[in-house]
Amino acid sequence: MRILLLGASGRTGAHVLTEALSRSHTITALVRRPEVLQTHPSLTPITGTPTQKADIQAAFASAPSSDPIRAVISTLNNGRTGDSPWAKMTAPPNFLQQTTRDVLDLMQEFGCKKIVVLGTNGVGSSRANTSWLKNAVVDR
């Protein structure tokens, strides 16, 4: 299956990339710096940023019509100045919301029906704004 991976050069994305390739998936990875990715015959790096809808569209369009992108995996997260979950954020405040909205719009345009989105809602200070039900599930 051809998968569009967003966040492939990040900590979690690198693990997802390695695992997907080991399972014989074909990966299109939208990254700002493709030189940091491993090289693999089943990996197509596309230079761009998920903050630009046109770059996401270019990633979808890069797949051949005989093997279109069938799923999206987003391992994006709000960037921070350090490793602490309380470090100052460097991403725009609506980064994940806008990126996900753009991806969903383009998925419809390109006929892609599957998406997996990494989420950290409920971690750190966001826990107070998370529903009791979600907190109960996460705590189990």
Structural class by helix and strand composition:
alpha/beta
Number of helices in the DSSP assignment: 4
Mean pLDDT over the full residue set? 91
Q: How much is the radius of gyration in Å?
A: 16 Å
Provide the helix percentage: 25-40%
β-strand amount: 15-25%
The run of helices and strands is EHEEHEHEH
- CA-based shape: globular
Q: Report the sheet with the most strands, covering strand number, pairing sense and barrel closure.
A: 5 strands, parallel
Poorly predicted runs are: none
Strand order of the largest sheet: 3-2-1-4-5
Q: Could you give the count of β-strands? A: 5
Distance between the termini: 33 Å
Account of the protein in words:
- This protein is α/β, with parallel strands linked by helices and 140 residues long.
- It is built from 4 helices and 5 strands, in the order E-H-E-E-H-E-H-E-H.
- It has helices at residues 11-22, 53-62, 95-110, 132-139, and strands spanning 2-6, 26-31, 43-47, 69-74, 114-117.
- The protein has a 5-stranded parallel beta sheet, with helices on both faces.
- The longest helix is centred in the last third of the chain and has 16 residues, at 95-110.
- It is globular, with a radius of gyration of 16 Å.
- 23% of the residues are buried.
